[in-house]
Amino acid sequence: RRVAILISGGGSNMLALLDSMRGDHPARPCLVLSNEPDAAGLVHASQRGVPIAAVDHRPFAGDRAAFEAALMRPLEAANPDIICLAGFMRVLTPGFVTHWQGRMLNIHPSLLPKYRGLHTHTRALAAGDSEHGCTVHQVTGALDDGPILGQARVPVLEQDTAQTLTARVLEQEHRLYPAVLKRFVQGNRAPLYLK
Ligand code: GRF
């Protein structure tokens, strides 16, 4: 199975996914695509021999459909079976999501349905939560919604800052996303709750 990964920045989740798709894993990466032409993740993907492409969203300012039509060109050329959003920071229109419905995953740094949207770690700290974590879900038209495919939890510690909590969650993201992708490729849709 062919997996395309969409990124906007460093792509640490993308790297974890690339490193997992080896040996007898049923999937291989076919494209890493970024809306940021100078995303560091593109260099790392290219160094691993994965095809890369960039479509800068800025020239399409405000015209999401036109930007997504431009995204479709490298995507259709790569012909993925599955799309993984990994630190991809552009909101996708319902039209794009519908086209890829059931074949597009996202990782979000909270225990959904809590804290959809941005600044999730700051919000969890402000709420005094004792637990936080990350979720992999199927992408639907609603932001950070869609059927949950997996979650991983971390404790929130007294001395935590947004930075320390982010780092602890990111470690779990790098475990969760590859595990969920492998199950998804194998047709297993049962949610995975990592210990
Ligand atoms: C991570 O918090 C991820 O959950 C969110 O984007 C952040 C950066 O991810 N989707 P990455 O390091 O670019 O993979």
TrEMBL record:
Q: What residues does the Formyl transferase N-terminal domain cover?
A: 2-181
Tell me which residues bind N(1)-(5-phospho-beta-D-ribosyl)glycinamide: 11-13
Report keywords, A-Z. Answer: Purine biosynthesis, Transferase
The record's top EC class is transferase
CDD domains (alphabetical): FMT_core_GART
Task: Enumerate the active-site residues.
Answer: 108 (proton donor)
Q: Its Enzyme Commission number?
A: 2.1.2.2
GO terms (BP aspect): 'de novo' IMP biosynthetic process
Is Transferase among this UniProt entry's keywords? Answer: yes
Tell me what reaction this enzyme catalyses: N(1)-(5-phospho-beta-D-ribosyl)glycinamide + (6R)-10-formyltetrahydrofolate = N(2)-formyl-N(1)-(5-phospho-beta-D-ribosyl)glycinamide + (6S)-5,6,7,8-tetrahydrofolate + H(+)
- Quote any Pfam family the record assigns: Formyl_trans_N
Q: Which HAMAP family match?
A: PurN
State what protein this is by name: Phosphoribosylglycinamide formyltransferase
